[in-house]
């Protein structure tokens, strides 16, 4: 099973089913699936499989034993063609993103002013620093992005509430 057959003509349900099958085929335990996001959704992988997840999708990144014991929230982000995540940043985490299938773009900036849309390069890790504004953008096809969180303070780890939305297409706060 591979992800090459995920195309823009598939429905959201079909894409999620293919990603679910891919992850299960690779031996990953799925902790959470969220397909209610207006831009697509995500799959969260069991924290106990962070080493396997990092080895498969972030092999060029070396995580310390201390980092591997933190909640790194390994996940797949699925961004639909033509959709955008909010223009956002985080107080308590940095993030690592890698496009593993399809097409996606990224906008980054150190200020609230939108930067220029840059296409993500397949297989290239993108490091997003704490406080750096960013937005994942769907292009002509579904974009499948592997993600790992890097907590600024392991004693106060980040969570889904650690999102400051500067701008949002869906009027979320």
UniProtKB/TrEMBL annotation:
The record's keywords, sorted A to Z, are:
Isomerase
One example of the protein's molecular function in GO is: isomerase activity
Locate the Mannose-6-phosphate isomerase type II C-terminal domain: which residues? 72-168
Q: Can you tell which superkingdom this protein's organism belongs to?
A: Bacteria
InterPro entries (alphabetical): Man6P_isomerase-2_C (IPR001538), RmlC_Cupin_sf (IPR011051)
Question: Does the keyword Lyase belong to this entry?
Answer: no
What is one Pfam family matched by this protein? MannoseP_isomer
Q: What is this protein called?
A: Mannose-6-phosphate isomerase, cupin superfamily
Protein's organism: Algoriphagus winogradskyi
């Amino acid at each position: 099973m591979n992800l090459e057959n995920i195309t823009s003509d598939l429905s959201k349900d079909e894409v999620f089913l293919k990603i679910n099958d891919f992850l299960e085929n690779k031996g990953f335990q799925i902790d959470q699936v969220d397909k209610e996001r207006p831009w697509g959704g995500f799959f969260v992988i069991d924290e106990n499989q962070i080493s396997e997840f990092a080895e498969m999708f972030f092999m060029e990144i070396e995580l310390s034993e201390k980092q591997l014991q933190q909640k790194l929230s390994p996940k797949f982000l699925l961004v639909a063609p033509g959709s955008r995540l909010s223009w956002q940043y985080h107080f308590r985490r940095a993030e690592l993103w890698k496009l593993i299938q399809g097409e996606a773009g990224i906008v980054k900036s150190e200020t609230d002013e939108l930067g220029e849309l840059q296409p993500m390069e397949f297989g290239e890790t993108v490091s997003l620093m704490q406080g750096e504004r960013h937005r994942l953008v769907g292009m002509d096809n579904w974009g499948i992005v592997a993600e790992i969180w890097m907590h600024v303070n392991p004693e106060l780890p980040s969570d889904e509430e650690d999102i400051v939305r500067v701008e949002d297409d869906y009027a979320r706060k």
